[in-house]
Amino acid sequence: MNTKNIIIGIGSLIVIFAFLFIVYKLTNQPVKSDFPEINKIEATDHFRWNNRKNILVEYSDYECPSCRNFHDFLNSIEKEASGKATLVFRHFPLISIHSGAVDAAYAAEAAGLQGKFWEMGDQLFASQSEWGSLSDPKDYFVNLAKKLNLDLTRFKKDIDSQAVKDKVQNDLSQGEKIGINATPTFFLNGKKIDVANLNEFKQLLINL
């Protein structure tokens, strides 16, 4: 074997090892579980509870039955958990399967501009089975706004405003960027929460 063939052989081995190393690195990346970029309260966020030391971020869909269950659960443990964390709500409407979810998010944001974001959320989840079957639920949302004693003229204007649409889209885009594909999805202090049941979730929160 002459020198030229030896050099070619060594070069080929280097290329093969480099390729195998790249494949190994790509297929053995750790699953990301920490998201410090979302572990802060933005000026446009809706939040409640009062312990800024621990931030619980929820990505939710008003037409999602599981989200409704978690909504009721969080309300039920509010007295125990409110001193342990701050709960931040962000929109993640599953557009492909929930046709009214985006409009529901707009309704919540429009109500929020009149100081009734959480109250509208309560109404949306409670009546989910009613408006979720409508092809166009906007009139239903106006009736909910009426129940909350909102300025209906302003509500109708805000629900279609670009500012409201941008807020919902920004939440959705952020969720997509970090890989959310289901609702509800929760993050505690930037770490995605994976719990087996509601009681386990409760214990996690009240024992902070």
Describe, in plain words, how this protein is organized in 3D.
- The chain is 53% helix and 10% strand.
- The protein is an alpha+beta fold and 208 residues long.
- It has a single domain, classed as 3-Layer(aba) Sandwich (Glutaredoxin), CATH 3.40.30.
- The longest helix is centred in the first third of the chain and has 25 residues, at 3-27.
- The protein is globular, with a radius of gyration of 23 Å.
- The model is unreliable at 15-31 (pLDDT under 50).
Features:
208 residues; Glutaredoxin; five-stranded mixed beta sheet; 53% helix; globular
Q: Supply the number of structural domains.
A: 1
CATH architecture: 3-Layer(aba) Sandwich
For the biggest β-sheet, the strand order reads: 1-3-2-4-5
Share of β-strand residues = 5-15%
What composes the largest sheet?
A: 5 strands, mixed
Number of strands: 5
Category from helices, strands and their pairing: alpha+beta
List segments where confidence is low: pLDDT < 50 over at least 5 consecutive residues. Answer: 15-31
| Rg from alpha-carbon coordinates | 23 Å
Summarize the helix and strand pattern as letters: HEEHHEHHHHHHEEH
The CATH superfamily is known as Glutaredoxin
What's the overall average pLDDT, rounded?
Answer: 88
Q: What is the CATH level 1 assignment? A: Alpha Beta
User: Which overall shape is indicated by the principal axes computed on the Cα atoms?
Assistant: globular
Q: N- to C-terminal separation?
A: 69 Å
How many helices in DSSP terms?
Answer: 10
- Helix share, percent: 40-55%
CATH topology: Glutaredoxin
